[in-house]
Amino acid sequence: MLRAVVTGIMLENIQIVLVNTSHPGNIGGVARAMKNMCLENLRLVDPVLYPHAQATARASGADDVLQKVQVFSTLADALKDCSLVLGASARLRRLAWPELDPRQCASESLQRAGAGETVAIVFGRENSGLTNEELELCHYLVHIPSNPEYSSLNLAAAVQVIAYELQMASREPPQVMDNEAAAASSEQMELFYEHLFHVISEIGFLSQDHPRKMMRRLRRLFNRAQLDVVELNIMRGILSTVQKNRKP
User: What is the pLDDT of residues 32-43, one digit of tens each?
Assistant: First the structure.
């Protein structure tokens, strides 16, 4: 019973995100693939046509998944509460990108989801996938091994592969989670960067000639560190103390 509860919590914390899907039938096909593997949370980013009768028809009874769908205008908005983001790609990229296969993706996703974090697995457009700019919002690239001469999977099939690996990984004995704090979300980090910008401007540290360059470097620094919520609160506390001590 406890194992079933833990498994349910892990899968509940995983979001499947579809970007700019062009055919509503593919959305329904994805909903069906998700329900087959006990996934319920589907987010759509700027779908070309949704809601639509073809989505409902292709869902083949997975109407409850469609009823819970959340729609966003941008990928950044869809990922605000997510601390781990994995972007699926049908092709290997020349960019130096951390890469996982579907099995590794499932293991990493469930470990983080089991710790209470919100995990997003992002799938791009049917004809072109994710742009490099969209991949910049992802921590890992997930590549599904396939026939090198015919590597293109349709959207529902790609989601089915990942969903299957998640389902199989969830059947393993749950790992004992430690008490470490969850990673900071994208939205929390943006609020921190805003606070940091104001403080270093107030104390005269930020170069007025190249403020964006300095902030870009600081973003890279803290993104590499992958702050958790406790660490982030410590940093915000330090910044608040600096501001307080500067007041007359």
Answer: 999 999 999 999
- Tokens (6 digits) for 191: 């609020």
- pTM to 2 decimal places: 0.78
Domain 186-246 has CATH 1.10.8.590: yes
- Domain map of the chain by residue range? 2-170, 186-246
Cα dihedral 15/19/20/23 (nearest 10): -60
Q: How far apart are CA 54 and CA 221, in angstroms?
A: 46
Going by pLDDT thresholds of 50, 70 and 90, the confidence category of residue 98 is confident
5-23 pLDDT, tens digit per residue, is 446 778 999 999 999 999 9
The CATH H-level (homologous superfamily) assignment of domain 2-170 is SPOUT methyltransferase, trefoil knot domain (3.40.1280.10)
Place 176 in a pLDDT band, splitting at 50, 70 and 90. very low
